Structures are given as C-alpha cells and as structure tokens.
C-alpha cells in the first residue's frame, strides 16, 4: 500500500486536505457552483504526499484530477464535505483549500423545475452552510495545525487577518482572486501566509511551487512542535 513505507519529514503523519468547489443543487439537473479548479488544493496534497504524509483528500467536483497516492473522498455539496471531514479525523494537520459554497439552496426541488408558461421565474432561497474550517478549528479533537485559505478581492491582508481570528485557525493562506490576477483557474498563485506572528508575502509562483513551500512549512512546524 502506498504510504505505509513512505519516508520523509511527514512520514507517520496524517494530513487532511480539502479541495475544489462544491455544487449546491437547485433541482436534480441544476446547481450553483464557483470557479475553483481544485488546482492549488491538488498540488498541496501531492506536495504533502511527497514529504511522506498519509493524505486524506476530500474533493468537490474539481476540474483537475486528484493526485495519485492519496486517499480520495469525493463529495458534491458543502454538507457532504463537512461530513467527510468529520469522518477523516483524527489528523495531525488540516489544509482547507476548498472553495466551499457559503450558501445552499434551501428550497431545492426534488424533481426538475418546469416553466409554468406565464414567464414567471422561480425564487431561489438560500441558507448559510456550516463553516467547516471554523468548526474543526474549535473541535475537541482538533488537528495540531489548522490551515485555512482566504479568497479575497479587496484588502487581502486585512480581511484574511480578521478571518484567521474569526475562524480560530492557526494559519491562513490569503490570495487575491480578483479577475485581473488570473489566479482563479490559472496555473500560478501569489499568496500571503498569515500566522500568529504576522503576514508574509510570497512571490508569484506556480501553484506547484507554492504547494511545496507550504508543505515544507507544515513539516517544519510539526517537527518543531510534536514528538
Ligand atoms: N470554509 C469552510 N466552510 C465554509 C466556508 C468556508 O470551511 N462553509 C473555509 C474555506 O475552505 C477556506 C476558508 O474557510 O479555508 C475561508 O473561505 P472564504 O470563502 O475565503 O471565507 P468565508 O468565511 O466564507 O468568508 P467570505 O466568503 O464571506 O469572504
Ligand atoms: Ca466563502
């Protein structure tokens, strides 16, 4: 079995990674989604695997296929992702790279919605999804290191720093997903790592290189803080 004989600074560690978008059903044939490709989360899972970790990879319906050598759990909706994350515990670290839908369709229809012939449009009602990152950050069996992401279009560092406080996670990887940056759906990323000691801007790098840097930091942190 892959992983059992893994060597590297993360051998013997179990790390949970979430990735991709979620889809929220409107009816059996329609859904609400977002533009996450799953590329950054997939690269992070591969980088952690390369350092010897056993990786549970909980992924929404992403464009990018899951990496080999990780335990893949496929989900569709945010509610399914929350349940899969709960099932994956315990873990030494969690990296929550998924673009989880903030809202589900509260009045989703069990059968295909039909035009009624009057020209009237259906009214979609939304309900807020549970915040998976905030929930695991405050759980009794919390991983020693919880890393969140913050997708922002404005005031990236200020918003992400506030998000770190609000959610109770240890680190936040903040990225600017403004349309002009080409990051959402692209092959590069320009992130700022926010930790307890402040904000560290990283250069614009391939998503693979960003992932390797993050995996190295996680390995160093776990080695320093855990036997
Ligand atoms: N996240 C989550 N569960 C949710 C929403 C978000 O676990 N229901 C996680 C994401 O995986 C990410 C982090 O929270 O690691 C931040 O996601 P983001 O969308 O940037 O933040 P939100 O708290 O949803 O705030 P907003 O979208 O309003 O800026
Ligand atoms: Ca959100």
UniProtKB/TrEMBL annotation:
Record gene name: coaBC
Family indicated by similarity: In the N-terminal section; belongs to the HFCD (homo-oligomeric flavin containing Cys decarboxylase) superfamily. In the C-terminal section; belongs to the PPC synthetase family.
Any GO BP: pantothenate catabolic process
Residues of the signal peptide: none
Start and end residues of each stretch annotated as Phosphopantothenate--cysteine ligase: 15-227
GO molecular function per UniProt: FMN binding; metal ion binding; phosphopantothenate--cysteine ligase activity; phosphopantothenoylcysteine decarboxylase activity
Residue stretches in coiled coil: none
Pathway: Cofactor biosynthesis; coenzyme A biosynthesis; CoA from (R)-pantothenate: step 2/5; Cofactor biosynthesis; coenzyme A biosynthesis; CoA from (R)-pantothenate: step 3/5
UniProt entry keywords in alphabetical sequence: Decarboxylase, Flavoprotein, FMN, Ligase, Lyase, Magnesium, Metal-binding, Multifunctional enzyme
Binding site for CTP: 102, 112, 149, 163, 167
Names of the cofactor(s): Mg(2+); FMN
Cofactor remark from the record: Binds 1 FMN per subunit.
Keyword hit for Ligase: yes
EC identifiers of the protein: 4.1.1.36, 6.3.2.5
Function: Catalyzes two steps in the biosynthesis of coenzyme A. In the first step cysteine is conjugated to 4'-phosphopantothenate to form 4-phosphopantothenoylcysteine, in the latter compound is decarboxylated to form 4'-phosphopantotheine.
Domain called DNA/pantothenate metabolism flavoprotein C-terminal: residue spans: 10-220
Lineage: Bacteria, Pseudomonadati, Pseudomonadota, Alphaproteobacteria, Rhodobacterales
Entry GO CC: phosphopantothenoylcysteine decarboxylase complex
Protein name as it appears in the record: Coenzyme A biosynthesis bifunctional protein CoaBC
Annotated catalysed reactions: (R)-4'-phosphopantothenate + L-cysteine + CTP = N-[(R)-4-phosphopantothenoyl]-L-cysteine + CMP + diphosphate + H(+); N-[(R)-4-phosphopantothenoyl]-L-cysteine + H(+) = (R)-4'-phosphopantetheine + CO2
Record flagged with keyword Cell inner membrane: no
